[in-house]
Every structure is written in C-alpha cells, then in structure tokens.
Amino acid sequence: MFNLRSRFQNYRKALPGDFLWAGEHPVSIQGYGEVDIQIQGPPQNGQRRQRYFLRLRNVAYCPGFACNLVSLRQLRKQGLWWDNSPGNNCVRKGNGSILCHLSDRYSQYVLEDLPATVSSAAFFVRRNRFNTYTQPQPSKAVANLWHLRLGHPGPQALEHLVHSTQGV
To answer: What is each CA distance from 161 to 1, 5, 13, 141, 155, in whole angstroms?
Structure first.
C-alpha cells in the first residue's frame, strides 16, 4: 500500500468499491500499479552497502494513509523472507542470499528510509487549496465515507448534511 501517486508506474484505476480494512474501517483504494523502492543491499567486497531498487507489484494506492506498507505475505509469495534471527535484520532470497537490510527507525523496521524531512513527520500536513476568495469543489463521497468522516453520526445528522451542503 502506497500513498504517493507520483511514485507509481503502470498505474491503473481501481474498480468502484475496492477497499481494504484498517482496523475496523474500510479505506478506499484509488488504483493499483508498480512502485520502485530504494533498498540497502549487502556490502560488496568489503565496501559499504550499495543502494538498489526493488520493484513492488500490484501495489494499492491509498492517498489517505500516513505511511507506506509492504506485506511480508506478498514478499513470501515471491520467495523472499525476513530474517530477524539474532544478529540479522534483512530480507533474504529463497537461496539464502541477502537481498537487502532493514533499518530500525522510530521503533519500526523499514525497507526504504525516506529523507529526514519526510520520515520525521508524525502526521501529514496539508495546506488548504481554497480560501475565502475561492470556491471549493463540492465534496463527493459514498455514504459510508461520510459516516466515518463525521464521527459516526446518526440518520438525522446525515439527512441534515444532504440538505445543507453541495455534492453530498
């Protein structure tokens, strides 16, 4: 799952209604594609670790997520496995050779370590595209998304929303 559309290659839109579960809440999937992430390979001939690209396939585009996730289950389907035995923290190929090393950042193991200016942010920051001089586009979403956005309101509140706003 990835949240940056600019990183996708071979992007295709998702079918209406595609979603995944985040806890008890469905998250809309906007599309699918391939994403290249930069990984740290094993040291070669005593030199420092080289950087390589790993292509992730069939990645879901979910712009509302605060981080990008790689499924260990999907890596295992490709014959890769996470070696977290003592003294190791790497992804290995089926033959046992090291594909890449993982970094420990903010108590999480990561494949791709983004620059400090990006990875240190705990939450996304979004600037409003509209101000008092411009008109925002009507917000359109399915009823379930409005239900979640508004903190699980009852039917009377949703009925009021329909009559008080545009595009709902």
So the answer is: 32, 31, 29, 13, 10
